[in-house]
Amino acid sequence: MERPVSTIIFDLGGVLIDWNPEYVFLKEFRGNREKMDWFLNEICAWDWNANQDAGYPLARATEDRIAMFPEFEELIRMYYGRWDEMLGFAHDDTLEILESVVNNPDYRVLALTNWSGETFPNAIAKFDWLQWFEGILVSGNEGMRKPFPEIYELMLSRYQINPAEAVFIDDSIKNVEGSKLVGIRGIHFTGASNLIRSFDDLGIRI
Q1: I need a labelling partner for 108 at 20 to 30 A (CA). Which of 40, 41, 144, 160 fits?
Q2: Could you say which of 86, 102, 128 is where a domain stops?
Q3: Backbone angles phi, psi at 19, to 5 degrees
């Protein structure tokens, strides 16, 4: 029989915070989504950005990319130079759920995010509610990232979490599967309604 959940761990981007390079680059490509998608898949690619989430310096990453694709220098510099414009809004429906569990003394509520340590202070400044968490583990400050097991193990040890009593919520199925490898139950987030149903299945009261 599964133990009751006492610790709830949220991902941030995609679950509570909207972040999307499209907010900058769709304008730069004059609304041509096909060209923008090509750029974000081939030049400033997702795996390149993920490397910065693991702690690689933004300035060095930018220069590395420019050296590979000098013809795209201006656009490449926009990626981190205009990063704040990619940081959108909070997902209010998920935020309501977060507030409910934060205010319930039966639960510890933490966050585990793949995020550059250089840009995360901008999010802290923009979203006051990030102070609600007991703690936030930021991948870029640790030199590791989801879905690799080391970051989940660090989360467990740093905050003295019993994995059998924890649940992790992420919009990436790979990251959810990573949490399960260290014994943390996982919820693949697809929206607030599915999160409510998943909490209900686990006996989490909101």
Answers
A1: 144
A2: 86
A3: -135, 130
